[in-house]
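TEACHING EXERCISE
Course module: macromolecular assemblies
Task: Read the component lines below, then compare them to the predicted structure of the full complex.
Student: A.B.
Group: 4
Components provided:
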Amino acid sequence: MAELTTTAQKKHLHEVFCKDVMSMPEGSKIKQCQQCGACSGSCPTGYLMDRGPREVIAAFRAGMIDEILKGNTIWMCTSCYSCTVRCPADIRITDLMYELKRLAIKYDLIPRDAKAPALTKYFIDSVQKHGRNHETEMLSKFMATKDWSLGPKFGVMGMKLFAAGRMPLTATDIKGKDEIRKLAEYVESKEVAVP
Amino acid sequence: MKYSYFPGCSSEATGKTYDMSAKAVCEKLGVELVEIDDWNCCGATSYFSARELLSFAISARNLAIAEQMGPEDVVCTCNSCWTILAKTNAYMAESPHLAEEVNDALAQIGKSYSGSLKVRHIAEVLINDIGVEAIAEKATRRLTGIKVAPYYGCQFTRPMGGDWDDFEFPKILDGLFEALGATVVPYVMRSKCCGGTMMLTAPEGALKMCHDLLQCAVDDQADAIVCACPLCEMSLEGYQPRVNSKFGTSFNIPVMYFTQLVGYALGCDPKDLGLDKQIVSVDKVLASVPA
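Instructor-supplied answer key:
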């Protein structure tokens, strides 16, 4: 994990977040957060988070984006959208969590014990390769690099799924898989490089 | 009636029986599902967590192909696919700037999407287009005596389904199963999250979520849980042994896709519905259906 050490780096990241969020549909609603806490009270994984979504917005306003990204909050978000549909100010909080995840990945600011970013990577690798996610391939890569103990834990279930034809060993490649690669290359060419 | 069908990646793996049963139900009801040619992954939560424009672009590739095939509504089975494709559709309509960026990307592969399609969930399509009464009329088996816990999952209505069911307490499947003769239990956890891929990345959280969802069904004395999403189905069915070893419980409750049980009521062959491919046997539930 890289570290944000200087004030200038923190300020840069703060500004990138603001710019990205303001360009998202309804992104400017973040300004209307009144800190009511409906989001944190609704979050099914809030009890596992270093700070809930309400506190994330408060910390961001206090210029603490580095502290937010050091914590586990964003990697505990399952995208269930409870906060988003309950927010009285119509802030799309799930979208804010996605933006923070993207910044953490782009700037290599991932806490060492967070495993979700690796799964994200293997999922995307599989889709970029085949055009579709090959669940078995993604799972094997994740287990091999992040958690060997999942092997025995999933063993019996995996065998049952395999026997039922619900865990194929080979991937289906779509005809247009090059199109997926081209889309990724194009988007990458448009992105602002990390300074 | 004809629709463009987006099966989603799990239809080829863990969610295979959802795909099989959805097709079987549609065939019985005279609904034509035309698979979107050479569809790709919707992008799921992973692409949104890494690249925003790319996630919209790969999702929109499917909509671009569907739009070229015809004006029919796009139908998804998986809650997550439906959320992503419907979100792409809605955000492109809300933001001309985003629509332009996505179309600039699609132009690189000779495609474009004008935003003319509707993206819908199969549950909503069957209930609102075909109708509960029409489905019940075609049933050859009554589900009398079966207590069903309808588990909608978090992304069934959130955030995209608010115009046809409630964000917090969706109910449309309740009416369908009641019309088919089943008893629908309250199942107040119906729209809570199962944890999804958190089972791999933070299992302590996901196992607790699954435990609470299974316990709620047992407290309601449900005979089976019916799902509308492959992640939900996998979590609740596949992880029962792990929940049991962590919490000292003894859950062994059948979990099915709603289309599997509807298909059974419509008289489909259980094999065509993939009912023999479940991890927790559903035989006892099916045996209790009057012949």
